[in-house]
Amino acid sequence: MQITGVPKDIEEKINKQLDSYGIRPGTLSFSLDSASSIQQKLMNDIPELLWVGVHKKGTTFFLEGVEKIIVEEEENAGPQNLVATKKGVIKNIYVSKGLPKVKVNDYVKPGDILVSGDITEDNEENEEEDKEEKKKSKLVAAEGDITAKTWYEMTVTVPLQTKNEVLTGNNEKKHYIQLGGFKIPIWGFEDPDYQAIHTDTTKNSVYFFKWKLPIKIVQSTLSEKKYNKLSRTKEEAIKTGIKQARKELQLQLGPDAKILTEKVLHETTESGKVKLNLYIAVEEDIAQAEPIK
User: Do 147 and 85 meet the contact criterion of CB atoms below 8 Å apart?
Assistant: First the structure.
């Protein structure tokens, strides 16, 4: 049986259903239902399937499925403002709902309202109405993207001496039969004469017809590895440290943040290591929803 087009969890459900229909390796094909009947059963029994195609070629069933995607409607957000989560200088403003409270180049602090969800409308129909009645208050869920230039201080340490691991290409293989916690070697009994070894292991289960036996065939590849010592100049260490800091900060902020520039505030060399204090400028979305109480 070959199943394509669906994620692993639905593939397992299909296999389970097929087994309940009696469709499994070793079953006589003339005793099975038609492909169209199997298709209809799967559609009825697996609600996650939007569609499934079944056809038989020789002794193999080919199934191609399409997962049903259920889109949950987002709950309507209540009245809210968008507030700043960090200190920064506003670079771009896009407001789809609400009243902007800041402009480009404004400096903001955490908690400052960027977009207000309190929209006030003037009512000029009757000039004699009380002042309080001249304005109607309307609350909405403010929405928008507000990006700002922000700054981060980071410290990194880079060694002037380092080493990397390389595989030489020499390797030997070992094969075992694994039964429970025991491994019985069947090929390759001695370890190779390598100073350092990198080991990759693969395990394959053993079946008797449809039954999975408590036995595994294990193959281990023992590869020779060596360590090369590398020396960096101070300038190379600084470049490596800057690259490392940018990478760490990008992982921390996420892919949408844009790292602009970096500046070395302070550097020291001690005990074979270069320590850097960096000041990094970033452009990022600093808006966060805050309910109006």
Answer: no
